[in-house]
Amino acid sequence: MRILVLADIHSNWAALSAIDERFDVCLFVGDAVDYGTAPRECLDWLRANKAICVRGNHDHAVAQRIKPRPGAGFRRLTAATRSIHWDILNEKDLTYLAKFPVTRQVSIADHTFLMLHATPRDPLDEYLTDDKEAWQQRLTGNTTDFVCVGHTHVPFHLDLGEQQVLNPGSVGQPRDGDPRSSYVIIEDGRVEFRRIDYDIDAAVQSMRDAGMAPQLVEMSENVLRSGGQMA
Ligand SMILES: [Fe+2]
């Protein structure tokens, strides 16, 4: 049994389509949308591959038509692409996103998986990296074999003894200084982190084609090419 674990695709079809893996099940731990400009292709891929999904903070905001808050940095990039999403996506797409549950537990072959985007304390928004003690605390009472999370765009793997917590990193907007797309394969209980190059030029061109302002395209391009740096 080969399980593909993805997070934080962020409407980057060039990155998602570069993943060339054989898999039996895809687990997606949230943030299909915002930042990039190809949400339709990314949602079609998730549907076509019958991905088991949970909701990210950006999926929630797009589906619920929440206006982006003004601000700088990533907030500014969110604002630049949110309205483009509402132009591209139809009601069926928004309903598909709205139905992503906030958390879910699944059993696959011999293992159990808890899926959520951020943390059990605040499944949409809490930002928590590889802090073993904090994860232990937040997972009190949960006994799944694997806990799959996203949100930080930084991959990590924690061994808590009976339980493993993993963040596959971001498919479409890595922020750990490595611009390559990041994901995980779990095969027969073994966890493998992978990175692949993808066509960043195509992702940037997609933003231009979607009508993003040149200054914001440049800002976004810097993030993609540097693996998370704004300037
Ligand atoms: Fe994200």
Structure characterization notes:
The chain has 231 residues and is of the alpha/beta class. The chain has a domain at 2-102 and 172-226: Metallo-dependent phosphatases (Purple Acid Phosphatase, chain A, domain 2), CATH 3.60.21.10. It has 8 helices and 10 strands. The protein has helices at residues 13-16, 39-48, 57-63, 73-88, 91-98, 132-138, 200-209, 214-226; strands spanning 2-6, 25-28, 52-53, 103-108, 111-116, 146-148, 156-159, 164-167, 181-187, 190-196. The strands form 2 sheets. A 5-stranded mixed β-sheet has the order 3-2-1-9-10, with no helix packed on it. It has a 5-stranded mixed β-sheet with strand order 4-5-6-8-7, with no helix packed on it. Helix 3 crosses helix 5 (91-98). The longest helix has 16 residues, at 73-88. It is globular. The chain starts with a strand and ends in a 5-residue tail after the last helix. The mean pLDDT is 97. It binds fe (ii) ion (FE2).
Give the helices and strands, then pairings.
Blueprint: E1 2-6, H1 13-16, E2 25-28, H2 39-48, E3 52-53, H3 57-63, H4 73-88, H5 91-98, E4 103-108, E5 111-116, H6 132-138, E6 146-148, E7 156-159, E8 164-167, E9 181-187, E10 190-196, H7 200-209, H8 214-226
Parallel strand pairs: 1-2, 2-3, 5-6, 6-8
Antiparallel strand pairs: 1-9, 4-5, 7-8, 9-10
Bound molecules: fe (ii) ion.
